[in-house]
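Renewal narrative, Specific Aim 1. Our central claim is that a sequence can be written position by position from structural information alone. The example that follows is taken directly from our test logs and has not been curated for this report. It begins with the structure tokens describing the chain, in the order in which they were read.
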């Protein structure tokens, strides 16, 4: 047998040749670029995290504000002696009544018919009377000076103070009760003075007398009627 001829086999050494050394400038570029890319990615992640945090905080503030707003409205009550805010805005839907556009002293000086209403914002009887005051504004408009006054800064006047206080001082005419309505004619004389839940038509009669203008129609035994848990409206006796 003729022995086979051994073929030359390729070199099968497992040890691989080492990679040629990298040029220092290229190596430095790759390292720096990797660090920069890593830093940019970290900044983007941090910015996204801050945006999420700020968004969540803003949503929490909005939810808190809405909750407090609904809570205030829910606590408002027509039948308790608690301060809820402007009673004319809350219970008569008319926030334009306060502050009054004129003072009693100025109205008397200008010989204008004046209707002064003494009240308190934390008084249930004043809250229930608020629609009557709003109705007076609607009916008489610029023909009278409607002057709602809180009684906190006043001292009860009445007969005891009639000679001690100036004619234009509202304390001179306050009896110490609320609500109280006082109507002055053009000469500054009191033509109507009543306390409690005064009927709107009784006040209208006095204003008609003081102004010389006819009574607004329809007229009847005016009263107030609640149309929800907060607000009321004024209706005549014929309705």
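The sequence written for that structure reads:
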């Amino acid at each position: 047998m003729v022995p086979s001829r051994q073929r030359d086999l390729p070199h099968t050494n497992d040890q691989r040749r080492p990679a040629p050394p990298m040029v220092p400038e290229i190596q430095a570029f790759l390292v720096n670029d990797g660090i920069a890319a890593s830093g940019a990615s970290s900044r983007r992640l941090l910015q996204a995290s801050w945006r999420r945090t700020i968004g969540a905080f803003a949503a929490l503030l909005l939810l808190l504000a809405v909750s407090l707003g609904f809570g205030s409205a829910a606590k408002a009550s027509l039948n308790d002696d608690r301060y809820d805010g402007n009673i004319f805005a809350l219970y008569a839907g008319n926030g334009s009544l306060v502050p009054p556009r004129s003072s009693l002293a100025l109205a008397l000086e200008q010989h204008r018919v004046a209707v002064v209403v003494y009240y308190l914002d934390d008084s249930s009887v004043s809250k229930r009377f608020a629609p009557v005051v709003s109705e007076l504004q609607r009916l008489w408009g610029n023909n009278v000076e409607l002057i709602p006054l809180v009684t906190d800064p006043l001292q009860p006047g009445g007969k005891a103070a009639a000679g001690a206080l100036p004619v234009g001082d509202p304390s001179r005419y306050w009896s110490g009760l609320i609500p109280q309505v006082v109507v002055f004619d053009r000469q500054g004389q009191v033509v109507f003075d009543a306390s409690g839940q005064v009927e709107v038509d009784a006040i209208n009669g006095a204003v008609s007398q003081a102004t010389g203008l006819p009574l607004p129609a329809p007229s009847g035994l005016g009263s107030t009627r609640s149309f929800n848990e907060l607000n009321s409206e004024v209706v005549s006796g014929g309705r």
